[in-house]
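[job 4471] stage=fold_predict status=RUNNING
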Amino acid sequence: MEREKIKFDENGLISAIVQDAQSKEVLTLAYMNEESLAKTLETRETWFWSRSRQELWHKGATSGNVQQVIDILYDCDSDALIVKVIPTGPACHKNVYSCFADSLLEEGKDSISGNPSANNEEVQNRFEIFNRLEALIAKREVEMPEGSYTTYLFTEGVDKILKKVGEEASEVIIAAKNRSHDELRYEAADLLFHLLVLLREQKLPFDAVLQELEKRHVK
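[job 4471] inference complete, writing structure tokens
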């Protein structure tokens, strides 16, 4: 069994990096022992070992913010895990999407809250906006901040989101018929945003769409 390869430290623990399977954002760092790892594999929800309380804890048992496990990867030394999850609420005890929200770099901005700094622009690929937008949409779904348009869409549900996708697709068609680059650029951006919201609501990672395109690509 692959589980037998896992190496626990002298305290019987292994670090577990929890990652949103859709947005790829790192949500938290926790620790597992053999029992919590076994429970995680059995229930497909995250279980950890609390070093402060010296007991097992099931993420979301009291808050309801459970994490559905999609995959568990281990590193080349078999002494660290990445747990890919679909979260049903905030990962952080401060009731925010991710525990990693603050930066030590004065000039930096995180991938969720804003654009990369000018110093880092050269390392951003042309599709980086999709990564940041997917992460922002995931954050909105979890935190549901008041006044956010994305919150409104998730609150209204799939029928409203589908309606917006249909409306934006129609507006893309009209813009193309009008031969207006400015109009088409604007409406295409609206369509892509609402499509990403729909993918999040459906729990389908954008990566899955890209992989489908890759499969169809004829070299």
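[job 4471] summary: Helices lie at 34-43, 128-143, 149-156, 158-177, 181-201, 206-216.
[job 4471] exit 0
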